[in-house]
Amino acid sequence: MSKPLNVAVLGATGAVGQEFLRLFTDRKFPVGELKLLASPRSAGVEIEHEGKKHVVEAVSAEAFHGVDVAFFSAGASRSREWAPAATEAGALVVDNSSAFRMHPDVPLVVPEVNWDAVKPTDKLIANPNCSAIIMLMAVAPLRKLGTIKRIIVSTYQSASGAGAAAMRELEEQTRTVLAGGEAKPEVFPHKYAFNLFSHNTAIGDNGYNEEENKVVEESRKILGMPELRINPTCVRVPVLRAHSESITVEFEGAAPCVECVRETLAASPGVRVVDDRANNVFPMPLDASGIEDVLVGRIRQDISDPNSLSLFVAGDQLLKGAAQNAVQIAERYFGLG
Amino acid sequence: MSKPLNVAVLGATGAVGQEFLRLFTDRKFPVGELKLLASPRSAGVEIEHEGKKHVVEAVSAEAFHGVDVAFFSAGASRSREWAPAATEAGALVVDNSSAFRMHPDVPLVVPEVNWDAVKPTDKLIANPNCSAIIMLMAVAPLRKLGTIKRIIVSTYQSASGAGAAAMRELEEQTRTVLAGGEAKPEVFPHKYAFNLFSHNTAIGDNGYNEEENKVVEESRKILGMPELRINPTCVRVPVLRAHSESITVEFEGAAPCVECVRETLAASPGVRVVDDRANNVFPMPLDASGIEDVLVGRIRQDISDPNSLSLFVAGDQLLKGAAQNAVQIAERYFGLG
After folding, report:
1. Which residue of A has its CA nearest to B235?
2. How far is B151 from chain A (nearest CA, A)?
3. Is A260 a catalytic residue?
4. Sign of torsion over alpha carbons B194, B196, B202, B203
5. What is the rounded distance in angstroms from the CA atom of residue B305 to the CA atom of residue B112?
6. Residues B154 and B294 in one domain
7. Which of A300, A312, A310 has the alpha carbon at shortest distance from B206?
8. What is the DSSP letter of B302?
9. d(Cα B92, Cα B20) in Å, to the nearest integer?
10. What is the CATH number for B44?
């Protein structure tokens, strides 16, 4: 039995916050004292965890005293505001926001891919963008089979990436449309029921939106390949909580054989190969929802280029794309499991 | 006023069949006698068109006597069965199925792209696969700006591609799931509500499914580029009637400038550029539904390759992807409009 750790969750009432609590139980994370923190707006909310009622506290510097690990999932501005207080109080901060991801002194970590980026003295570790994590779970292991030169990825992203309100919006809008009413967008700028749209983050000068630029920059940092060529197209689809991605990977020289890729991925922790050509069973977001593994399939030699191969992945955005990856970081950091 | 044409629609009770009738009115197609044909199972159904009730007849060789143009949309096996009788009766057959598309003597036509493939003596013209049509509406005009070398495309395909029953299945399953029930797949092999899946056609030896292989082969035939390299990934998403596609086009040499592409596409018949970076408004299937133009946006220089550019399209699968393209073929053939 590991020594209990005092844990704080900032953003406890959000979609990712809820997953943290479930994961502490599922993964037997040795939670000592548990502090659920949120904005003053959500303070006072009661959340039950393992049979005990916890009252959500408004976040404050004092709240981090005695905390061993603080999971932040309340957006970039709140992370910027409270990370210094938490680390000064001695907590390890695992930050789910984009606030510090590209900071040169902050490790950006997918434990299965680049745990070596973490030093024991680090007090702040950034959890990557969900689309980047899910893509890299499938792509990073392929480095054993060849040198990756370029990645082309089109995403099929779920509502959960924009939080619990977005998930409710998808359900509510769909209910309205099925009843013959008209969808009224609130969380997203576009109608969502039976629709899809380009990721609703600002388009930069390069013509790519913020989500796409995150996928490029974060993947390069995680892989330690600052020049890697990546072309992402990020799209929101009417799915609740798992992201899917259509990925083409180009290698220096001939692409590795399909069977080699299948074997390598099947042996990769956190990856489950779902690639049943005979029965047409491949990764689907509904199958990926609520599970910890990232599903990978449609593994095939790209018929348009001998140096490329294509695959299709689905991973739970709230789990491996967010809370689970953060908990895994803490587990490794504290030498658990 | 054009001389009226006697018209038969085979598959009149299907999703595409219904669109034919609407298009005859919208496009003022000069319908003389109208024969609605279907399998014996659907014979006797009454369909109103322009204030007149038509009784659906069971298809037979005799039904084609006196018909000038027959639109076939009842699946490949029915097309194979009835096309000879219809052409022998003197009708022009515009066939929406895959039955004859790759036959070397049958023109496979997107009127805006390759009308020159049609000879006045042709009595059978094939209507291409919907995903191929919608992609080519955006890609074919780019040939004016450079030599296309390779296309990588990931699709976001709607229910309508599998017919009216599939559209109902998506709605019914979603209603069931929102009411707390469990989705029971019938038309598709997988759960569809708030889910997506790899296109449910058989996977060939090359690892690509039939839909993907159609996109490759048909696009090559339509463009007259038998060696064109194309890498498609076809995915069904929970959207009702418009297909979207994320496309990367590689050129011999540097990709044309974004503004040149925008201008060229804006001047292309049947294409509407929807590419508002400032307001994050790009092609969406809901906006493409029920309209004749294919929407194109997210036009950008591929940041991973100076020779490539990326774009995102959405087009109504039942209209330009099926019935409308077929009606346009007939209009051009008979010199209408």
Report:
1. A246
2. 8
3. no
4. negative
5. 29
6. yes
7. A300
8. -
9. 16
10. 3.40.50.720
Count of Cβ atoms closer than 10 Å to residue A329 Cβ: 24
Euclidean distance between the first and the last CA atom of chain B, given in angstroms as a whole number: 10
**CB atoms A207 and B277 under 8 Å:** yes
Number of domains forming the structure of chain A: 2
Task: Determine, for residues B304 and A246 on separate chains, whether the beta-carbon distance falls below 8 Å.
Answer: no
CATH number for the domain harbouring residue A250: 3.30.360.10
Give the C-alpha separation, A216 to A231, whole Å.
Answer: 7
Residue B2: predicted pLDDT: 76
Considering the domain architecture, whether residues A66 and A189 belong to the same structural domain is answered as no
The answer to whether ipTM exceeds 0.90 is yes
Domain of residue B327, residue span: 5-127+322-333
Helix/strand/coil for B34: strand
Distance from CA of A304 to the nearest CA of B (A): 5
The closest alpha carbon to B160, from B151, B150, B171, B173, belongs to B171
Residues A174 and A200 in one domain: yes
Residue A55 pairs in a beta bridge with: A46
- The b/e string for A149-187 (b: 16+ C-beta within 10 A; e otherwise) is bbbbbbbbbbbbbbbbebbebbbbbbbebeeeeebeeeb
Whether A109 and A220 share a structural domain: no
Q: Are residues A140 and A49 in the same domain?
A: no
**Residue A28, phi then psi, degrees to nearest 5:** 50, 45
Q: What pLDDT score was predicted for residue B164?
A: 93
Is B238–A233 a contact, with Cβ atoms under 8 angstroms apart?
no
**Per-residue pLDDT reduced to its tens digit, A58-92:** 999 999 999 999 999 999 999 999 999 999 999 99
Predicted TM-score (pTM) of this structure: 0.97
Tell me the three state secondary structure of residue A21.
helix
